[in-house]
Amino acid sequence: MTLEKQTRRQELLCINTEKVYDWILNEATFELMVDGLELPVNPVTGVQLECDDIDQSAVTCTVTPAEVDPIIVLDREDQEFIIDGEEIKLQIINIRKNFDVNVFVPLIAELGGRMIEVGSAFFTKCEQVILCAPDGTDIDVTYTDLDCFVCAVNCDMGSSTEIDELNVTVSVKICQSIQSTFDVTLELVADLCQPRDILPFPPCPPPIMPAQCPVIFPVSDPCIPEKPIGKFPFKLELNQPIDIEVELQNDEEENGQEGEE
């Protein structure tokens, strides 16, 4: 069944959307100290882990925005700038970002080599950016890349009554898109969209025969009988005859040689 397209016509429309006042891409790298992470118990045996039970050369991490208030705009301040010889008023934006970092360690091979989570830490970083962001605009921060790696590891062995602790230095890299936006209602003239045609379901496929092996059967050479002779259905080819020369001695020469002797 095919939809009958309505006659296209344009209408004056009002659309709610966001106007982008300014937009920058920003990259930041910083180090974070995560200290005092107590080693957990072995999830398989339930025995408290110690420093000798983990592979300190393969400690890893993950970093994610905090679930609560990942981005907080602290304040904004107007500032006059001269750009291309023209005076312009921009805003200095103070932003606080909250993150969660999780640290993972692998057990040694004798304990199975399983990767386990040691613990997590909450941390905050602040930064300033310059945007065209007058009062009333929103500041939107989107992470295009958020990654970390463990730079240094130290495991403190506790006493017989204390739990061993892991101390790590984490390097965090952030790639972010920062925009100042404002909700607007746009008036424009545009065509109204129409639904597309319904796609038909494909028919059942026809039966497919397996491919033959014409190299060996059936033989298509008209000089070869349709039915093979014997049990080999191949084309037989005769080798070319070979000329053999045999030198025979004359009987008379042989007899004369015997008389002379």
What do you see in this structure?
The structure is a single chain. Helices cover 4% and strands 51% of the residues. With 261 residues, the chain is mainly beta. The strands form two sheets. Strands 2, 3, 4 and 5 form a four-stranded antiparallel β-sheet that branches. Strands 1-7-6 form a three-stranded antiparallel β-sheet, with no helix packed on it. Strand 3 (71-83) and strand 4 (86-106) form a beta hairpin. The model has no long low-confidence stretch (mean pLDDT 83).
How many helices in DSSP terms?
A: 1
Q: What is the straight-line distance between the termini?
A: 116 Å
Q: Average pLDDT across residues?
A: 83
The tally of strands reads: 7
Measured on Cα atoms, how large is the radius of gyration?
Answer: 43 Å
Strand content: over 45%
Global geometry: flat
Order of helices and strands: EEEEEEEH
**Which residues form runs of ≥5 with pLDDT under 50?**
none
Query: What is the helix content?
Result: under 10%
Q: What profile does the largest beta sheet have?
A: 4 strands, antiparallel
- Which class best fits the helix and strand makeup? mainly beta
